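Agenda item 2: 7LV complex prediction
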Amino acid sequence: VVEEYNEIARHYRIKETVGSGGFAKVKRAVHLPTGETVAIKIMDKVALGADLPRVKTEIEAMKNLHHHHICRLYQVVETSRKIFMVLEYCSGGELFDYIVQRDRLSEIESRAFFRQIVSAVTYMHYLGYAHRDLKPENLLIDDEQNLKLIDFGLCAKPKGGMSDQLYTCCGSPAYAAPELIAGKSYMGNEADLWSMGVLLYALLNGFLPFDDDNIGMLYRKIKSGKYDTPDWLSSESLILLKQLLQVDPKRRITVDELLNHVWITKEMGVPVEWNSKYQTSVLDDDVVTEMSVHRKVSRETMKAELEKWNYDYLTAAYFLLLKKKTSGRPVRLQ
Ligand SMILES: CN(C)C[C@H]1CC[C@H](N2C(=O)N(C)Cc3cnc4ccc(-c5cc(Cl)c(O)c(Cl)c5)nc4c32)CC1
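Presented output:
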């Protein structure tokens, strides 16, 4: 099995396992040329079996999703038996654990997190993607208390754009929209908004709006659209929850209405900025300089190589050097 790790081991020191999700193992690692910490999602192609297409879906989606609230994909290494995805490391773990540790979050803290989720999901929708598995387990916290959306194995980019109907029932039942569990055709973006309602409810209350050990009972509760409203919820929170947890998808709030909703802008004064802070169309000069000097090639040659976006070790080195520069650390390769 050693030869499977040769390619990845050339540029990374692999550390401990930080978690496993279904058919993947995620390990912490250090990118040797920059010293930056990364997460490496390791999958065995044979064990993946029928799930292999989901991995391809996730990789292709992440190659197009460049946003400060979406976990960054740095590199993909495929060997005869394994697929390695080198990803942005999030030291704060899952939002799910963060909520559980605090019972529930204040309205202020819920708002700060929810605005970041709205930013990431709006960006995805504008690019024509629906996530379809939004839940606190798929939102990680980085070392600057920023949320990073992960797990794009179920995301959909309908051929004809967001107007196309989706049919596959997927995601986690407790977060699934009524129309999705009814087996009807549904709109990915509308279903994401329902899940965001469940997410907001979980942030503010520390438990789920619809929960039952029996799946049949759970579906009935979801279709009823009825949930408890604890007395600590403000009237504005109740209004927003009601607009998100609308059983009829056509009456559900849209992302555009969400961006400057009164609850979203309360005490913040400004609507959610959903555009990406990342500038990927223009290569960063300092990073190109460091990389071309380090590899003893001309800047033009290095730029041409980088602009192929092969998601190889050059792409990883570029993104990780850029992350160092953004965090105010020296743009240096060892
Ligand atoms: C419950 N899930 C289905 C899987 C779980 C696996 C470990 C992971 N993790 C942890 O649980 N820490 C505690 C540390 C940690 C640190 N950085 C990470 C960076 C990226 C990812 C990641 C994982 C998966 Cl399965 C992805 O598809 C993507 Cl796009 C990204 N996981 C990370 C991660 C959190 C999620």
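Discussion summary: Residues 18-19, 21, 24, 26, 39, 41, 71, 87, 89-90, 93-94, 137, 140, 150-151 surround 7LV (CB under 6 Å).
Owner for follow-up: CH.
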